[in-house]
Amino acid sequence: MIKNLSEGHSILGNYIAELRDVEIQKDPMRFRLNMERIAEVIGYEISKTMKFIRHQTTTPLGIADDSVLAEQPVLITILRAGLAMHTGLLRCFDRAESAYVSAYRKHHTPEDFDIHVEYLAAPNLDNRIWIISDPMLATGNSMNAVYDALKKFGTPKKIYVASVLATNEALERVSKHFPTNTEIWVSVVDKELTAQSYIVPGLGDAGDLAFGEKC
Fold first, then answer.
1. 212 phi, psi to nearest 5 deg
2. Whether the Cβ atoms of residue 68 and residue 52 lie closer than 8 Å to each other
3. CB 156, CB 128: distance < 8 Å
4. Which residues contact 163 (CB under 8 A, 6 or more apart)?
5. Helix-strand-coil percent breakdown of the chain, rounded to 5?
6. pLDDT digit string (tens) for 9-41?
7. What is the DSSP letter of 72?
8. pLDDT tens-digit profile of 114-126?
9. CA distances from 203 to 57, 112, 138 (A)
10. Cβ atoms of residues 143 and 172 within 8 Å
11. Hey, what domains does the chain have and what are their CATH numbers?
12. Mean pLDDT of the chain, nearest integer
């Protein structure tokens, strides 16, 4: 299932507009904050689809019958651009364990590049709920490479892919590559992908805008 949150109107549209704005992007703290806020919204929406159980909570005046998550997911972040999203997701799933994966493009020419996965640190992933976050799904190749690396560490019970911005090409490619128990949650879908695999209108390089340009 693909869930495009921009198909409905909400305050999420304000956060996306600020992310794209070239003037507001000059403030990296604001850029990171908007990434965090978008991820928090996505996390909240994802939580509505998860399993809950009844829980009795002792208060100063009695016993409350509450609804709590049946199990905690593992938050899997693709470095380094995904770090701001990770913070937002942690606000929703504050007891979740975390995993980190390094994936990057190795360019031969502007149009020709390979995806390299070099670093992976994770808790037990077998029979767990995975939430994999990456701000940009341009081609979907990085996400697919990360999944191939992760599945060596266990078989997921359920996968949620969380992204700020995606293209239809990426959504199709990831949908075909991931198992059927996957849901893709994205805040907005842009239609154009350039020959250099940049999203238009997009927002630029999320990692550079959040943490500074790479050498």
1. 100, 155
2. yes
3. yes
4. 133, 134, 135, 136, 137, 184, 185, 186, 187
5. 35, 35, 30
6. 999 999 999 999 999 999 999 999 999 999 999
7. P
8. 566 777 888 999 9
9. 44, 22, 12
10. no
11. 2-211 (3.40.50.2020)
12. 90
